[in-house]
């Protein structure tokens, strides 16, 4: 492992996304990332692999620029790699990517394209043009009130078209996604969303049948020239179902479907996309299609499934933006298991048909947990991770069904 590097990772956020990226940099290069987050919270605060700096107004334009310029000056002899680990930070990075100090690289698309992609209504239009399937969708405008119909029955899915504006409302009672079992529940959910101050469209969708194991996640990296050079498909076996964690991945097996991945590649390269992209997808057993839900213009919070499978996330950025290498497309083929939960939860709440392979991968050492890292294993840290394990056991028993 190198004793010195010519770059400094600068991360924005304070959740498991940040920690996973920092761990990738630490594993590959032995470097300690600087991260700015709003709260002194686990898993970043107190970590040995992070220089974590608390900044309560971190999501404002002023704080973002102030912190970036401070890091650029502090590491003036290095290339500063700026990575946003949440949608609001990615938007700031895209907005100011061409106005940052000369030694800062922010590997993001421009803000106009970003705003197109993160708006689910516009994203589905792009999917239609590129032959990428998505769930049956109706765009709901607040002016429609309760005087509308849908061409499918319950359960109904409702989610915001603009996630950044949605969470900016600051109402903690809002759900990430509403899964409504009745028409009345759907109407009440829409009323609640708009009462919280959200003004944009809502996306109403048909529910694609199937449990968590029908979900897929696809992470891609597009180089500085807009060419996709890495794709890793994850077969999700388990998600969270708590109100604020719904849809967060908990167990993933790496997978491969080149037909699907080539469709996504064509979309990204047609857009001249750069940097990380992350797609939420569900397999529709009714017709054998994969239906895209959304794109995140960043690495996902479960990004360590890449690094754990042997494809270090940090290396992708460094080889592209620091070393200026041109790498051929790599579509991940190998199988590996990633978890954000203890083994007990992974086996208790996933379908039994996957257990033999899960056990085989664990025996072969092809199993990783984002928080379990020998390079960050003080007694205090170990106890905090143990507390996280216990919390997950309680939460999954409360919110998840045993298959």
Can I get a quick summary?
By secondary structure, this protein is of the alpha/beta class. Helix content is 34%, strand content 23%. The chain has 13 helices and 17 strands.
Topology diagram in text:
Layout: E1 7-12, H1 16-29, E2 33-37, E3 50-54, H2 61-74, E4 79-84, H3 87-96, E5 104-105, H4 111-118, H5 120-129, E6 137-140, E7 156-160, H6 163-167, E8 178-180, H7 183-195, E9 202-206, E10 215-222, E11 228-239, E12 249-255, H8 258-270, E13 275-284, E14 289-296, H9 304-308, H10 313-322, E15 330-331, E16 337-339, H11 343-348, H12 355-363, E17 367-369, H13 379-399
Parallel strand pairs: 1-2, 1-4, 2-3, 4-5, 11-15, 16-17
Antiparallel strand pairs: 6-9, 7-8, 7-9, 10-11, 10-13, 11-12, 12-16, 13-14
Give your account of this protein's structure.
The structure is a single chain. The chain has 403 residues and is an alpha/beta fold. It has helices at 16-29, 61-74, 87-96, 111-118, 120-129, 163-167, 183-195, 258-270, 304-308, 313-322, 343-348, 355-363, 379-399, and strands at residues 7-12, 33-37, 50-54, 79-84, 104-105, 137-140, 156-160, 178-180, 202-206, 215-222, 228-239, 249-255, 275-284, 289-296, 330-331, 337-339, 367-369. Strands 10, 11, 12, 13, 14, 15, 16 and 17 form an 8-stranded mixed sheet that branches. A 5-stranded parallel sheet has the order 3-2-1-4-5, sandwiched between helices. A hairpin with a 4-residue loop joins strand 13 (275-284) and strand 14 (289-296). The longest helix has 21 residues, at 379-399.
């Amino acid at each position: 492992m190198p004793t010195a590097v010519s770059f400094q990772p600068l991360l924005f956020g304070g959740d498991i996304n940040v920690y996973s990226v920092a761990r990738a940099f630490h594993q590959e290069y032995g470097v300690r990332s600087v991260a700015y987050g709003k709260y002194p919270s686990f898993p970043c605060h107190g970590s040995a692999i992070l220089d974590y700096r608390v900044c309560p107004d971190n999501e404002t334009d002023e704080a973002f620029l102030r912190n970036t310029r401070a890091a650029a000056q502090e590491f003036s002899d290095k290339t500063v790699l700026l990575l946003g680990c949440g949608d609001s930070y990615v938007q700031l990075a895209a907005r100011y990517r061409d106005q940052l100090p000369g030694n800062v690289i922010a590997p993001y698309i421009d803000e106009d394209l970003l705003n197109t992609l993160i708006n689910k209504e516009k994203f589905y239009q792009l999917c239609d043009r590129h032959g990428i399937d998505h769930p049956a969708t109706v765009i709901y405008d607040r002016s429609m009130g309760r005087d509308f119909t849908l061409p499918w029955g319950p359960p109904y899915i409702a989610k915001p078209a603009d996630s950044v504006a949605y969470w900016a409302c600051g109402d903690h009672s809002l759900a990430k996604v509403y899964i409504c079992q009745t028409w009345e529940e759907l109407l009440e959910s829409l009323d609640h969303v708009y009462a919280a101050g959200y003004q944009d469209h809502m996306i109403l969708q048909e529910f694609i049948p199937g449990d968590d194991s029908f979900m897929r996640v696809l992470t891609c990296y597009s180089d500085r020239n807009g060419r996709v050079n890495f794709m890793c498909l994850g077969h999700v076996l388990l998600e969270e179902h708590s109100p604020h964690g719904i849809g967060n991945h908990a167990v993933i097996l790496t997978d491969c479907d080149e037909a699907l991945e080539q469709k996504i590649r064509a979309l990204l390269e047609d857009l001249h996309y750069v940097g990380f992209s992350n797609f939420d997808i569900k397999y529709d057993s009714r017709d054998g299609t994969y239906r895209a839900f959304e794109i995140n213009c960043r690495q996902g919070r479960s990004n360590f499934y890449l690094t754990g499978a042997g494809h270090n996330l940090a290396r992708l950025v460094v080889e592209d933006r620091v070393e200026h290498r041109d790498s051929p497309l790599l579509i991940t083929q190998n199988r590996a298991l990633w978890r954000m939960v203890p083994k007990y939860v992974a086996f208790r709440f996933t379908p039994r048909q996957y257990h033999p392979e899960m056990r085989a991968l664990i025996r072969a050492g092809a199993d990783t947990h984002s928080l379990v890292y020998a390079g960050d294993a003080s007694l205090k840290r170990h106890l905090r991770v143990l507390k996280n394990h216990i919390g997950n056991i309680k939460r999954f028993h409360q919110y998840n069904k045993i298959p």
